[in-house]
Amino acid sequence: MAILSIRDLSVSFGGLHALKDVSFDVSEGEIVGIIGPNGAGKTTLLNTICGLNRTSRGEISFGGTRITGRAPEQIVALGLGRTFQMSQLFPGMTVIENVMTGLHRRTHAGVFAAALRTRRMREEEEKAAEKAWQALCYVGMERFAHRPGTALSFGQQRVIEIARTLISDPKLVLLDEPAVGLSVNRVGELDRLLRRIRDERGVTLIMIEHAVRLVMGMCDRVIVLNFGTKIAEGAPDDVVSTPAVVEAYLGKEFDAKRLES
Description:
Structural class: alpha/beta
């Protein structure tokens, strides 16, 4: 069953066509990679799915609900999570406080209750802190809970962002280059973490990634964009041997067999 359906999606910024008639489905429980050269429209695609960009034409459905034109907070409430290419941790907040912000759209106490520190507000904070602690334990980062979030390494901050996304129990998570800046060992840890999130929590994952080895080893299916157009879609082994993909992105010297060694 498709959890996400995109039909003839086009996005323009002035006279620039960032996406042109892009269509694909994502099934529940899949890990789908989106690759392509810089400027291909990959981040624009994720931003449009989560409501940050307006569509010029086309339709997006998530969980059977049409989300085209909806506000980002409405889409998040349906079960969509998102991480970004650059770290989005808040300065001046600890790691656990940063993770707790992932629940801010689910709290109900209101500004008045927060100002007066009412019993309801305290109970919500306690529940949020408990969920944040559980999320940190799940990703193996609980030892950093009370450190400043921005004091962590870039790779550690990426994992904290994943924990913050998980706290809201998403059905689908969009990941924008989660492996950027990570060492080989850290990429392996990320691979295992994302597989666990899919296998244990049933979360569907869509990821933009330039680490081809990670995409080849982890993704069930790969979509390739170039100049805003989908030029290939299929199993990783099939996609990386497609002449159009080799020419546009991988280069003639690319050898898929080396990734298997």
